Amino acid sequence: MFVEYRDLHQMDYKTCWDYQRALFDTLLQHKGEPSDQAGYLLLVEHPAVYTLGKSGHSENLLVSEEYLRQIGADFYHIDRGGDITFHGPGQIVGYPILDLERIGLSLRDYIDSIEGAIIDTVAHYGIRGGRIEGASGVWIEGARPARKICALGVRASRYVTMHGFALNVSTDLRYFTHINPCGFADRGATSIEKEIGHAVSMDEVKQHVINELSKKLNVKIYKK
Fold first, then answer.
1. What pTM value is reported for the model?
2. Which of 10, 14, 163, 204 is the most core-located residue (most Cβ within 10 A)?
3. What was the pLDDT predicted at 192?
């Protein structure tokens, strides 16, 4: 099975959300037709934006929307799972828009595969990432308090996915002080650069993400 990779570089959240939905709708329309194409992988960096999932709680935004506008950040209620999170420069946001039936994965196995790919990605930098029961995403294993390096929130309809993950590479972590990240008041956020103490190449991290996703999802990811 093949997945087409599109590097969107920098794109505002609303434009990218509309683009995701167009690809998502296309996959749904062609569901059941014979094809070796399982979908798309979009990687992008967004300007500062906070998003609240459909089951999220608005009280996890600790400042006013007016304050967010003052610091140049947007805010959206969106249709993924999960609570509130932040996207911004220095963060690789991945949107796998996939037909899981073509790949042969359940939704639970898909989420495990995404988390596993990110755990293996950060391991290239000597970082031990892991999972926490009852909390999606990738966390620094054994950290006290727990620190999240990658957030995860997806939507699926008829086993077609959208939304995805956000891996902090060199993200300004001060933005996370304005929220309870993913709804947790007692846990923090971190980044690859924060953990290892020096800069890394965004392009290099992207390539690791692509390689690890290809292995975990058992698909060939190609750039058109």
1. 0.93
2. 163
3. 98
